[in-house]
Amino acid sequence: MNDPNDIRCDLNDAAALVREIRRRDKIITALMNQVQRNLNNPDNDFSLLQTTFVLEEEVQHRTRELEEALDALALANREAQASRHLLEDRGEELQKAYAKLEERVAQRTAELSQQLHFMQQLIEAIPGPVFYKDTQLRYLGCNSAFAAFSGLPPGELVGKTPHDIFPKKLADGYVAADRELLEKQGTQIYESLVRYANGQMRDVMFHKATFTRPDGTVGGLVGLMLDITERKLAEAEVRNNRQLLQDIIDNSTALIYVKDLEGRFLLINRGMEELLRTTVSSSLAMSRESILGKTDRDLFPREMAETNRNFDKQALAAGRVLETEETAQREDGLHTYIAVRVPLRDERGSPYAICCISTDITERKRLEAQLYEAQKMEAMGRLAGGIAHDFNNLLTIITGYGELLRAALEENPPLQEKVGQILRAGEQAASLTRQLLAFTRRQMLQPKLLDLNDLLADMKDMLRRVVSEDVELIIQGDSRPCLIHADRGQIQQVILNLLINARDATPEGGRITISVSSIVVDENQARLHTGARPGRHVCLTVSDTGHGMDAEIRKRIFEPFFTTKEQGKGTGLGLSTVYGIVQQTGAHMAVESEPGKGATFCIYFQRAEGVLPEEQGPVVSELALGSETILVVEDQAGLRTLMCEILRRNGYAVLPAENGNQALLLAAQHTSRIDLMITDLIMPKMGGREVAAALPLLHPETKVLYMSGYAEDLNELLACGHSFIDKPFSPEALLRKVRDVLNSANPLRSVA
Fold first, then answer.
1. What is the dihedral angle through the alpha carbons of 564, 569, 571, 574, rounded to the nearest 10 degrees?
2. d(CA 292, CA 288)
3. pLDDT at position 32 over 90
4. Between the CA of residue 252 and those of 240, 248, 272, 351, 612, what are the distances in Å?
C-alpha cells in the first residue's frame, strides 16, 4: 500500500507535467502559425522547412512527452484510486478513534467536574474562610465564609489582590505574609486580629501553604482562617481562673503543692516556695519556675525526699485523704506541720495527681505544750490550795490556842517556852502554806506602785548575806525609773527565792547577776511566752554561772515539791512560789538554761505610770476590847470555837453559826442589834458572799468581815472595799481587825 504522502508527490509531478505540456502546446501553435506564414511566402521555404522540421521534432517530442504524461497520468490515476480507497478506510478508523476519544474526554470531563464540585462543596463545608491565590497574589477562588469575611461575592473576588479589597494597613500585612510564604515555600501558621466586613473584630489563626504546578514550579498558595476568638476568651478565662487560684493559695498560710503521679511538682504556692527558698540547704534557693517539674529528690535531702515520696504513694494507694505530722528545718528553727494529702481524680475516677496542704502547727504545738503545763500547774495549784486552805484552819486553831495557852502560863516560864516552840513551828508551817498559796495565786496581795530600782537597792545588804563569799553578786539597776504595780513583799519573795536558787546552783562559787531594765517587747517576742503582751515592760533578770539544767528539768522546775537538791536541803516550793506570784501579778517569765552554762530567769512586768506616794508611818489601831454583838460563821468547828472564845474573852457577845443557812436563821431570831458578821468566804452550800448579800434584809446595820485561807476573787473583794483577814491569823490580829471594822463608817466597808 502506497504512502499517501508519496501519492501526493506523484500528483504534484503530474500537474507540473501538464503545465509543461501546455507551454509546449503554445510553442507548437506558434510554430504552426509561422509555418502558415511561410507557406504563403515561397521565399521562405528553408525557413519553413527548418521550422517544419523543428515543428515536427517538437511535435514528436511533444507526442512522446504526451504519451509519457498520459502513462504517468494513468499510473497516477491508478495510484490515486488506490490511495482514495486507502484514505476512505483510514478515515473510518480515524472517525471511530475520534468518537472514542470524544467519549473518553466527555467522561473525564464529567469526572473532573464532579471532583471539582466535590472539592468546592468540601471547601464550602469548612466553617472558616478558605482562599487560594496565584503567585501574583490574585485570588483564584474562595468559599462563602471568606466572601462573608471580605464582604464581596466569590465571583467578584477572583482576579483581585488584597489591596483591591482590604484597607491598606491590613492589605500590607496580608501581602507581606504571603510573599514571605511564597519565598520560603512550605507552610505558614500565625495568629492575628482581623476585622470582618461587618466591622466585628475576631482573633483568627492563619494556616497557609504553597501549591505547585505539574512542572514543579510554585503555582500559588492556599489559606485557611480559623476563628480562635472563643478559644482565646477561654484561654483568658483559664488564665484568670488559674491566677485566681494561685492568688488564693498564695495568700494561704499553709504550704500547698500539687504533684503528678511521677512526683513532679505541677503547682506550688508562695508558702512552699519560701520554704524551699529559705531552707538550710543552699541548693534549694530557687524560683517557683525552676521548682516546677522537679521531684523531691531534686530538691530535698535523700532521707526527707524518700519520706515525702512514701507518703505520696501511701495516699495514692489508699485512694483517700492521708494526714501526717511532719517536720522541716527552717532558718528560725524546726517547724512542725500537719500535712493532708488528697489524690486528685479525672472524670473516669482515675488518679492523675496528688495535692498536699501542710499547715504549720509549730505555734499550736507550743501553745498546747504551754496549755498542758498551765493545766498541770493549775491542777497542782488547786490541790495545793485545797490543802493550804484546810491546813490554815488547823494552823489558826493551833496558833490561836497556843497564844491563849502561853498567856495563861505567865507564871510557868518552862511551859511557856514549850508553847513558844509550838507557836514557832506553827509559824513555819504557815510560811509553807503561804508559799503554796503564792504558787496557786490564791494569797491576798496588796499591790502598790513601786520602783524596782528602789526595791532592789533596799534589799542589797540582805541579798549579799544570802550568798557565800566565793560567789560574786552583781546588782544592777536602771538609770530610768522602773515602775510596776505589785505587792512589795511578794516581789521581795520572788527576788529572794531566785537568788537562793542561783546560789544553790553555784556550790563551788561563781557569779550571780540581778538586774533591772526597762525594755519594749514586740509581737514576735510576745508570741514566745504564755500570757506575754507586746508593749513597755520592766525586766527583772537573775542569772548565774552554775551547772545549768537540761530540757527535762526545765519542764518541771515550777512544779511544787520538785527539787534536784539532796533530801533535807529544799522544800521544792521556791520556784513554784515564784511562778505563782508572777502569774498573780500579771507578769510573765522566761527561762534559759543549758547544762554547764548556767541559768537565766527573766520576769517581764507591765510598766506602770504614775508618781510614787510618800512613805507614811505605821497606823496604830485602837484597843481591841469591845462589847458589840458579833455573828461568827465558820464551817470548821475547832476554828469557830476558838474565835468565839477569843472574842468573848475580850468582851464581845458572840453568835456562832456553822454554815450560812444557820447564820441567817440566827440573824432572823436575834431581835437585837448585830454589829458585825465574821464569815468564812468559802463554805459548803452557801458561801460568805451569799450570806452577806442576804443579811441586810434582816440586819441592815451589820458590818461584814471576810476571812479565808485563799480566795480566787480576793482582789475583787479588796477592790470593792470589803474587809478581809487572811488565815492563819493570831488572836491579836483578829481582835485588831475586828476593832478596825467596827470603827469604820460603812456597814459593808472598812478602812482596813
1. -70
2. 6
3. no
4. 18, 7, 10, 25, 50
Give the span between the Cα atoms of 130 and 448, in whole angstroms: 95
Q: How many C-beta neighbours within 10 Å does residue 222 have?
A: 17
Within 10 angstroms of residue 395's Cβ, the number of other Cβ atoms is 24
- The two domains 4-121 and 629-742 share their CATH topology (first three levels equal): no
C-alpha cell at 390: 484546810
Which 8-state DSSP code applies to residue 598? Answer: -
Give the single-character DSSP code of 444. -
Please state, in angstroms and as integers, the Cα–Cα distance from residue 490 to each residue in 351, 512, 579, 611, 651, following that order.
Answer: 65, 21, 11, 21, 36
DSSP H or E run through 265 = strand 265-268
Judge contact between 202 and 191, C-beta under 8 A.
no
Q: Among 616, 615, 605, which residue's Cα sits nearest to residue 453?
A: 605
Please say whether the beta carbons of 217 and 134 come within 8 A.
no
CATH architecture of 126-227: 2-Layer Sandwich (3.30)
Query: Which parts of 126-199 are beta strand (E)?
Result: 130-134, 139-142, 187-195
Looking at the domain that runs over 233-360, which CATH code has it been given?
3.30.450.20
What are the start-end ranges of the E strands in 308-379?
Answer: 322-330, 333-345, 351-360
52 has a pLDDT exceeding 90: no
Strand 255-260 and strand 351-360: the pairing is antiparallel
The pLDDT tens digits for 372-426 are 766 766 676 666 666 766 777 777 788 878 877 877 787 788 887 877 788 777 7
Distance CA 737, CA 600 (A): 42
Please state whether beta strands 139-142 and 483-486 pair in parallel, antiparallel, or not at all (unpaired).
unpaired
Q: Locate 52 and state its grid cell.
A: 517544419
Distance CA 366, CA 748 (A): 46
Domain ranges of the chain: 4-121, 126-227, 233-360, 366-438, 445-606, 629-742
Q: What is the DSSP letter of 623?
A: P
Fold of 629-742: Rossmann fold (3.40.50)
Centre a 10 Å sphere on the Cβ of residue 33 and count the other Cβ atoms it contains.
11
Q: Given a cut of 50, is residue 371 above it in pLDDT?
A: yes
For the ranges 158-162, 276-280, 621-625, the lowest mean pLDDT is seen at 621-625
CATH class of the structural domain 445-606: alpha beta
Please tell me the distance from the alpha carbon of residue 212 to that of residue 221, in angstroms, as a whole number: 9
Q: What is the pTM of this model?
A: 0.43
Phi, psi of 634, rounded to the nearest 5 degrees: -150, 130
Q: In 587-683, which ranges are continuous DSSP H helix?
A: 637-649, 660-669
Phi, psi of 559 (to 5 degrees): -70, 135
**SS3 category, 230:** helix
Which set of grid coordinates corresponds to residue 507? 556550790
Q: How many CA atoms lie within 13 A of 661 on its CB side?
A: 3
The three cell numbers of residue 696 are 441586810
List the one residue out of 632, 634, 643, 638 whose CA is nearest residue 667.
632
Cβ-contact 235, 248 below 8 angstroms: no
CATH number of 4-121: 1.10.287
Cis peptide before 728 (omega within 30 of 0): yes
**Which residues, 6+ apart, have CB-to-CB distance to 447 below 8 Å?**
485, 486, 487, 585
Contacts of residue 380, Cβ cutoff 8 Å, sequence gap at least 6: 439, 559, 560
Task: Fill in the DSSP letter of residue 559.
Answer: S
H or E segment and range at residue 175? helix 168-184
Burial class of residue 372 (count of CB atoms within 10 Å of its CB; 0-12, 13-18, 19+): exposed
Grid cell locating 619: 497606823
For 668, left (φ over 0), alpha (ψ -120 to 50), or beta?
Answer: alpha
Identity at 547, one-letter amino acid code: H
CA dist 181 to 66, 137, 222, 720, Å? 79, 11, 11, 97
3-state secondary structure 238-300: HHHHHHHHHHHHHCCCCEEEEEECCCCEEEECHHHHHHHHCCCCHHHCCCHHHHCCCCHHHHC
User: How many angstroms from the chain centroid is the CA of residue 739?
Assistant: 68
